[in-house]
TrEMBL record:
It comes from the Bacteria. Pfam families: SnoaL_2. Keywords: Hydrolase. The lineage of its organism: Bacteria, Pseudomonadati, Pseudomonadota, Alphaproteobacteria, Hyphomicrobiales. This is Limonene-12-epoxide hydrolase. Residues 16-116 form the SnoaL-like domain. It comes from Parvibaculum lavamentivorans (strain DS-1 / DSM 13023 / NCIMB 13966).
């Protein structure tokens, strides 16, 4: 028996938009509140991270590396429990270097939370300008 609560397309889109908006505020509790405890985060060029503790750690480390982070939504479409978000992620390091990274994110939702978050982007376009290795 499937006990997953279905979110409407509009509620699904709002959850993801709120999650993406929390990045500019550097709001780790707000970011993490969007995730299911058994969530998976996958920057598709690298290995997935499973579980809330690992996801929190990578996001904390990521925000610590940047003076500024803004995940700009270009297009977002949703159906119940599934959201696709085309974005440009704007990052500025503490030394002033910056990168504008085109990204496509896929969000699978379960019981009102992000259960699986997969980001698709060109790894060299991130690592080259930032000097960071994922």
């Amino acid at each position: 028996m499937n006990t997953t609560t279905m979110m409407t397309a509009e509620a699904s889109k709002k959850l993801v938009a709120d999650f993406l908006g929390a990045w500019q505020k550097r709001d780790i509790p707000g970011i993490m509140d969007c995730f299911a405890p058994d969530a998976v985060y996958h920057n598709v060029p690298v290995a997935p991270i499973k579980g809330i503790a690992g996801i929190r750690k990578i996001f904390e480390d990521f925000l610590a590396a940047f003076a500024y982070a803004d995940l700009e939504i270009i297009r977002i479409c949703a159906e119940p429990n599934l959201v696709f978000a085309e974005r440009v992620d704007h990052f500025r390091l503490h030394d002033g270097r910056s990168v504008d990274l085109p990204v496509n994110g896929v969000f699978e939702l379960r019981d009102g939370k992000i259960w699986r978050f997969s980001d698709y982007f060109d790894l060299a376009s991130f690592e080259g300008p930032t000097g960071l290795k994922l």
